[in-house]
Each structure stands twice: as C-alpha cells, then as structure tokens.
C-alpha cells in the first residue's frame, strides 16, 4: 500500500532524536504523537477568502506545502520546534517575518535554514549548496528588522524556533517563486518524471526521492565527447561531468552509497530498483557544458521490496 508524502515524513520526523543546527542546539521536542497524527491526517486546502491567502496556526512541529500566513502563539514554553517547508521542484520559497513578539534576550530565537536538517544531516549537503554553511542560517534575533525576508536556494526550507514565555507570538508568510533552473530538489511524490538541466555552471545538483523506488533514466547528455567505453567510477570522475545514482537512509547526499555512475552520453532506458529510504539522482558538472538528465520513478510495492531484500543496496540501506 502506497504511503503519502505526509505519512513518509511522519515516519522520518518520529525518527528524529535531535533536530540540530550549527548555530542552535535543539533539545527534546514536546509535541505528542496524537498532535502529529492529527496534523498528518488533516487536509491542507487553499481557502478563497477576500485576500486569497491561506491562514492557519503554526504548530511546534509542522510540515507546510502551501503558500500562506502561519501564526505561532505559545500556550506554554516550547523549547524545541521546527517547521518544514516544501514547494514544487521548479520553485523556491520565501519566508517573511511579521508581528514578531519574542524575548531574544531571554533565549528565544527564530532561525530560518536554507534547506532541511534531519538527525543532524543537511539537504542539500555542504558539497552541493552554493552558500557556505554559516550563511544558510538566518537568525531573527541577530538580524532583526535588517532581514525580515529569507529566500531559499531550492524547493525546501525550514524554521527552528524556541520561545519561553506563554503568549509569545510571531507570524511567517510563506510564498513560492518559479526557479528557471532548479538544482537541488526533494520530491513531494513517490512517483513522477523529471528533467534536470545545468546550464554551464560548475555545481552539483541532486534530485532526492524519499521513498524506495524503481528509477528509469531515459536520457542524459553531458555535452562532451569522451572516449570512455565502460561505466566505471574512476573514469567518470576523471571526465568532470557525470551522473550518479545514490541510495541510503539519510538526506545528506555526501553520506549516501554510490550505486552507479554514468558518464557516456546515451539515449535509452536504464532501469534500477533501489530499496533505500532515499534515492538520489545527482549530476556533477564542470561548468564547461550543458548537462541534462531525464528520468521517471515509481514507488516499489511490498512484494518488490521482499524480492530485492538480499540485494547489496538493500542490505546497505537496512544496516546503516
């Protein structure tokens, strides 16, 4: 039976023993299992009021996939909170602060992170993100009115926050914007099709699917003429332009298992089944050429997972 994106994230969020950022340490979260279930079972629908802006309260532990205005008001001290934001693959996210009433001098904070953090792992990884790690954290208490709007570099972002006093409140306005050349993406769906294009930029781009899937790489073109006749990782690394397929149970691509590398341009399908919690297509680009890869993916059912249970990748996924 297929699990929805919200159900999958529920499993991931329950596995969080620590929500950690380099600038702030997040302690035990006080949200209850019932509160989590009520959130993931609820339907987020865009309302059509006069202002055409979706509004609802922000929870201490939250997942948001729609534009809108979200207000947090503390009924009791909340010392370890995080809100995850996700957009479509070709979108980026802006988070605007509004009506902030917290005690920065008393240890309260609101920090926007450019990406996601789970169990101390970050997406995109430091190797793949265009900004140094310290620039990916924007703390309201440090920047104040100087920076009331933060824009993500990819389709995911998150906010850590801590408040000590009942009645403390703030509002976040979340908007989405078209990104003409998406680079790092987390898929909202366990099935779909996508084409990733890197237009002569020296960067690494990943498409992350947080499900065990069958993936079909139907076409890729790396723009260069090369003489490698077989798929081998040393040869591909030497070209400077190649496609990686990675698998594992975390979100940091630098810590995932390399399943295969492709570096000879071709047109034709390559089918692979990956039983990991996270399957990633990653393009490494030297910036000398236009790199392009097209692929489709679908969720593996329980019978398929049993069939590949003895596969090396499957062993790696379950044992790490």
Automatic annotation (TrEMBL):
Predominant localisation class: secreted
GO CC annotation terms, alphabetical: extracellular space
Record GO terms (molecular function): corticotropin-releasing hormone binding
InterPro entries for this protein: CRF-bd, CRF-BP_C, CRF-BP_N, Sperma_CUB_dom_sf
One Pfam family of this chain: CRF-BP_C
Domain Corticotropin-releasing factor binding protein N-terminal per the UniProt entry, residue ranges: 53-177
Domain Corticotropin-releasing factor binding protein C-terminal per the UniProt entry, residue ranges: 185-306
Localization of this protein: Secreted
One record GO biological process: negative regulation of corticotropin secretion
Signal peptide: 1-23
Coiled-coil stretches noted in the UniProt entry, renumbered to this chain: none
Keyword vocabulary terms for this entry: Disulfide bond, Glycoprotein, Secreted, Signal
Cysteine-cysteine disulfides: 60-81, 104-141, 183-205, 236-263, 276-317
Job description of the protein: Binds CRF and inactivates it. May prevent inappropriate pituitary-adrenal stimulation in pregnancy.
Family designation: Belongs to the CRF-binding protein family.
The protein's name in its UniProt record: Corticotropin-releasing factor-binding protein
Species of provenance: Takifugu rubripes (Japanese pufferfish)
């Amino acid at each position: 039976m297929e699990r929805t994106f919200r159900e999958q994230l529920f499993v991931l969020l329950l596995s969080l023993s620590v929500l950690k950022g380099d600038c702030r340490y997040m302690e035990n979260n006080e949200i209850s299992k019932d509160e989590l279930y009520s959130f993931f079972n609820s339907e987020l629908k865009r309302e059509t009021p006069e202002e055409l802006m979706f509004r609802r309260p922000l929870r201490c532990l939250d997942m948001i996939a729609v534009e809108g205005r979200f207000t947090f008001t503390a009924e009791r001290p909340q010392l370890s909170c995080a809100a995850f934001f996700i957009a479509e693959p070709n979108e980026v996210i802006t988070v605007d602060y509004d009506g902030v009433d917290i005690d920065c001098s008393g240890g309260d904070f609101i920090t926007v992170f450019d990406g996601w953090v789970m169990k101390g792992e970050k997406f995109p990884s430091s190797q793949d993100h265009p900004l140094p790690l310290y620039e990916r954290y924007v703390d309201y208490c440090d920047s104040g009115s100087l920076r009331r709007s933060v824009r993500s570099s990819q389709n995911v972002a998150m906010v850590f926050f801590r408040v000590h006093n009942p009645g403390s409140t703030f509002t976040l306005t979340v908007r989405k914007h078209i990104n003409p050349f998406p680079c790092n993406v987390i898929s909202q769906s366990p099935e779909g099709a996508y084409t990733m294009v890197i237009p002569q930029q020296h960067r690494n781009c990943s498409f992350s699917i947080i499900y065990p899937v069958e993936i079909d790489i139907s076409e890729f073109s790396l723009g260069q003429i090369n003489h490698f006749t077989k798929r081998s990782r040393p040869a591909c690394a030497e070209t400077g332009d190649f496609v990686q397929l990675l698998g594992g149970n975390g979100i940091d691509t630098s810590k995932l298992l390399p399943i295969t590398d492709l570096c000879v341009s071709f047109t034709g399908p390559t089918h692979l089944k990956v039983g990991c919690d996270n399957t990633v297509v990653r393009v490494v680009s030297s910036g000398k050429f236009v790199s392009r890869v097209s692929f489709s993916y679908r969720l593996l059912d329980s019978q398929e997972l049993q069939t590949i249970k003895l596969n090396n990748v499957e062993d790696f996924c379950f044992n790490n």
